[in-house]
Design a protein that fits this description.
With 887 residues, the chain is α+β, with helices and mostly antiparallel strands. The protein has four domains: 1-334, no CATH class; 346-546, no CATH class; 551-655 and 862-887, Aminopeptidase (3-Layer(aba) Sandwich); 663-860, Aminopeptidase (3-Layer(aba) Sandwich). It has 31 helices and 16 strands. The strands form three sheets. Strands 5, 6, 7, 8, 9, 10, 11, 12, 13, 14, 15 and 16 form a twelve-stranded mixed beta sheet that branches. Strands 1-2 form a two-stranded antiparallel sheet. It has a two-stranded antiparallel ribbon with strand order 3-4. α24 crosses α27. The longest helix has 35 residues, at 311-345. The two termini are 31 Å apart. Residues 1-44, 828-840 and 882-887 have low confidence and may be disordered.
Length: 887
């Protein structure tokens, strides 16, 4: 069954444009859904190296282009900027963001007309882009915010994806229209960018315009629909497509004009030329994970405009970041904070209801963005020279060592705020507490290292904002709040590289020498920058190593089995319930003790083995309880190896259903070993009888004195298998666990030595017979296992059992077809081509000899890339990770 997906589209004016198919987020795995589906087949090294390489190349180019510019010249150019220029830049920014809001207004009318209030759609578009333009982290994007807003108002997955995708398509329609006109009309300067003849320019421009016109005609006929990855949504008609294109024109034109009016008048390039370079700068930012394309965007523009060595151009780019990037983010954040505070101040009702529904899901993302921006401010402040006047004041009241330590602490606090912002995004309460403490420390560090009142006030403002967002952070997790995944780690590294370049640029006039590292002086800003950069690098290195290689494989301690679990497991008609008695699981038990749910905690996920045991109504409540517990702890929640019994409940939880194999069950009514397919087992049974081997069932009450003999057999068997005891879904040789079961053994009549054994799972009311451990002496005859198998099934039929369960065949019965979901196709591929690692097809063929009835076996988990993550977590529980799996 196909997993749940969403179309994720993001575009930053200073950086990235991305469109991927991703897993729809649920409340417990919001750390994981953005920007990961497209990386399924990517190697981690490539995912890290490519964006960092692009960022480093851009910074090297930027460093070369600004080699002869001093930081003091840039600050002077910023101070000398006319207020009229800033006013026009603000107007164009407002115009661009108004157009951005219209994307969603028109897209909602096309995809979900009447389902979302148009003011909410406009707010979603403007707020989403304001956050993504400023922060740019993979997990804090406009796509995430818009998805949460629309999902909170009841839009299903297809319509949410449709709104986001329609907005994205509109942007490209506007871009194609502008580029087509520029290439066709040949405005002055465009030929300098494209070294091709005017004829080729005209042909390309006409092709673009013709293609766009054909698209408009096609859409004007109505009833057009787009489908991808199991999703489908209506495309806009001709009128709405035209309005969307006009919104895109306003967006692109407003963004480019914001920077254009800030550029110096004597730059010597016309708008057409400038616009082409502006678009190229955005496009190159696609390959960079730096927030907002910071550094890459600037390097491309300076190089493309031929403005190397000009401090006024760098000042214009700096002002552009403030006006177009930071200011809208600040306004959006403040608006959300005020609205959140007002809606929670009194009982919510009337018009405030939908406001609260819209705001609540996006508060953690905004809070994470606020913390990340606060951290970036601290880091940038540590990379720039302090005010000599302020240092003079501090000199009178504080020792130099205290100022030096405060500067170092300020940079470390900035980095930690960047790292902890991911925990805020995951709604972790500990992350909120740590962030608040860090910002309090940052407030005092800002004052102590240079009386930086602006920075200190920003820390106070951030503290106030996070305080208003307190109720959004309710999760308690045992995982480290400083452990990052690869996309977040790449973004942090790229941002730090840009900030380090800012420091190098600010101190480019200082000649480097080793003595700088040990220069402690009131005017030693460059030395403080070097030492703080080293400290930040060391901290980040430790975090990176811990994030990439610090995962500890859990070693579950033996847990006491509650009496109610023993009773329900042994009475259950499904023998798989008895795996709950292995002692490596935790339990949720219903209040009336009519049902229980067995699960394990991997640190990242709560995963059940099977479905609830006992009363079905109580079982549904236990499923919801586990899901809610995982949500509170910020973990994934999955149900491994389940049947169709609770599928409606799993779907209600928003989980995806993935087939992971089939279970074989042999009917024992009128069972016999006759027939060609069972010839092997019939011959083994007969041969065992001829050679003096006796089959025997030993009741559990008589097993204690025999267990040492069976342990020796088990140990010999494990030695020859070069493996270790498994867990979770399989039982190991544990005296407490095995004491619950009768045993089937095969003895040598003459020596009375046991050669093979199996513990028996016996379902309630003789519904089903099965087994868990089945082991033998490695030097025993080759037929003993087949003989034991045949004897157990014949005995089960004699005792009146209805079924004999042969267990699951992994990946069996999965349709590997072109139109199947991606995970079904992967599972089918593994089944077809994975024989060298595990005998998938051979196992099914063996079980098929008994002519069993096959029933599907499912995994219910969050969709997208969460499914393979869950399967890996299951492998950790069963085999102890990759090392155990290879054994």
């Amino acid at each position: 069954m196909a997993g749940r997906y969403r179309l994720a589209v993001g575009r930053d004016k200073g950086g990235t444009i991305a469109m991927t198919t991703q897993a729809a987020p649920d409340e417990s795995q919001s750390t994981d859904w953005v920007n990961k589906a497209s990386g399924l087949l990517e190697k981690p090294l490539v995912r890290v190296a490519v964006p960092l390489l692009v960022t480093l190349i851009a910074l090297a180019v930027l460093h070369e282009l600004s080699a002869h510019v001093k930081w003091s010249e840039v600050t002077a150019d910023v101070a000398n900027t006319r207020w009229q220029t800033l006013f026009f830049a603000l107007c164009w920014t407002a115009f661009s963001f108004l157009s951005l809001s219209l994307y969603d207004v028109f897209a909602v009318q096309s995809v979900a007309d009447g389902k979302v209030p148009l003011p909410v759609a406009g707010m979603a578009g403007a707020t989403g882009y304001a956050v993504s333009n400023c922060v740019g982290f993979s997990y804090i994007t406009g796509t995430a915010i818009r998805y949460r807003i629309y999902a909170s108002l009841g839009l299903d997955l297809s319509r949410v994806a449709g709104v986001i995708a329609t907005s994205w398509i509109a942007f490209w329609m506007g871009l194609v229209l502008i580029m087509g006109l520029l290439l066709t009309l040949h405005p002055d300067g465009i030929s300098k960018v494209l070294p091709i003849s005017e004829t080729v320019e005209t042909v390309i421009g006409l092709i673009l315009l013709t293609g766009l016109a054909v698209l408009f005609v096609w859409l004007s006929r109505g009833g057009r629909r787009f489908g991808f990855a199991g999703l489908g949504f209506n495309l806009p008609g001709g009128k709405l497509a035209g309005l969307l294109t006009l919104a895109a024109l306003g967006d692109i034109f407003g963004a480019s004009m914001t920077l254009y009016v800030l550029m110096p008048d004597d730059l010597g390039v016309g708008y057409p030329y400038f616009f082409t370079i502006f678009v190229a700068a955005i496009a190159i930012g696609i390959l960079s994970h730096a927030p907002g394309g910071l550094g890459v965007f600037e390097a491309t523009l300076i190089a493309g405009l031929g403005a190397s060595g000009r401090s006024d151009v760098i000042a214009a780019l700096l002002l552009y970041r403030v006006v177009y990037t930071f200011l809208p983010f600040a306004i959006a954040t403040l608006s959300i904070a005020i609205a959140s505070a007002l809606t929670q101040r009194h009982r919510i009702g009337g018009a405030a209801t939908w406001i609260y529904r819209v705001i609540r899901p996006i508060v953690p993302m905004v809070a994470a963005g606020v913390a990340a921006v606060a951290g970036a401010i601290m880091l940038v402040s540590g990379a720039l020279p302090s005010s000599s006047q302020n240092l003079g004041i501090l000199r009178e009241v504080l020792p130099l060592s205290f100022v030096e330590a405060s500067h170092l602490a300020g940079s470390a606090i900035g980095l930690l705020l960047l790292l902890v912002s991911r925990g805020l995004f995951r709604k972790l309460y500990r992350a909120w507490v740590v962030a608040m403490l860090l910002m309090v420390a940052g407030f005092f560090a800002s004052l102590a290292k240079g009386l930086d009142t602006h920075e200190a006030l920003s820390m106070l403002a951030t503290i106030g904002l996070l305080a208003m967002f307190r109720s959004a952070f309710y999760r308690v997790s045992g995982a480290s709040i400083f452990r990052l995944n690869i996309p977040w780690l790449v973004s942090v590294v790229a941002l730090l590289a840009v900030i380090f370049w800012i420091g190098l640029f600010a101190y480019s006039h200082v000649e480097y020498e080793n003595a700088l590292w040990w220069d402690f002086a009131w005017n030693g800003d460059a030395s403080r920058f070097l030492r703080s950069s080293l400290a930040v690098a060391v901290i980040l290195g430790v975090v990176a190593i811990n994030s990439l290689f610090g995962r500890e494989i859990p070693t579950p301690a033996r847990t006491e089995i509650p009496a109610v679990v023993e009773r329900l497991a042994l009475e259950c008609e499904d023998t798989e319930a008895q795996i709950a008695l292995t002692g490596d699981k935790q339990f949720l038990i219903s209040s009336d003790e009519t049902a229980f749910l067995a699960y394990a905690d991997t640190g990242n996920a709560l995963i059940t083995k099977g479905e609830p045991v006992g009363d079905e109504t109580a079982g549904v409540q236990l499923i919801w309880q586990l899901r809610e517990r995982a949500d509170r702890e910020g973990k994934l929640c999955a149900f491994y190896s389940v049947s169709t019994k609770y599928l409606p409940t799993f779907l209600d939880l928003g989980l995806s259903i993935l087939k992971i194999g089939e279970v074989a069950r042999v009917p024992l009514k009128d069972f016999s070993l006759d027939g060609k397919s069972r010839k092997r087992f019939r011959q083994a049974k007969n041969r065992a009888e001829r050679e003096g081997y006796v089959f025997e069932i030993i009741p559990k009450e008589r097993m204690a004195p025999i267990l040492p003999e069976l342990r020796k057999i088990s140990d010999h068997w494990l030695e020859h298998k070069a493996g270790e005891e498994k867990g979770f879904a399989l039982g190991g040789f544990d005296d407490d666990y095995l004491s619950y079961f009768d045993f089937a053994v095969l003895r040598d009549r003459e020596t009375n030595q046991i050669l093979a054994f199996a513990n028996l799972f016996q379902g309630g009311h003789k519904s089903e017979l099965s087994l868990d451990l089945m082991r033998y002496e490695p030097d025993s005859p080759s037929f003993v296992m087949d003989a034991l198998f045949a004897e157990m099934m014949a005995w089960g039929a004699e005792q009146g059992f209805h079924w004999f369960s042969l267990g699951a065949a992994p990946f069996s019965g999965i349709e590997n077809r072109q139109l199947a979901s991606i995970w079904n196709r992967i599972g089918g591929f593994v089944y077809d081509h994975g024989e060298q690692f595990y005998h998938f097809e051979g196992l099914r063929t063996f079980k098929q000899k008994f002519d069993p009835e096959w029933s599907p076996n499912y995994l219910a988990s969050p969709g997208g890339l969460a499914a393979p993550r869950i399967l890996y977590e299951v492998n950790i529980l069963i085999s102890g990770g990759l090392r155990g799996l290879t054994k």
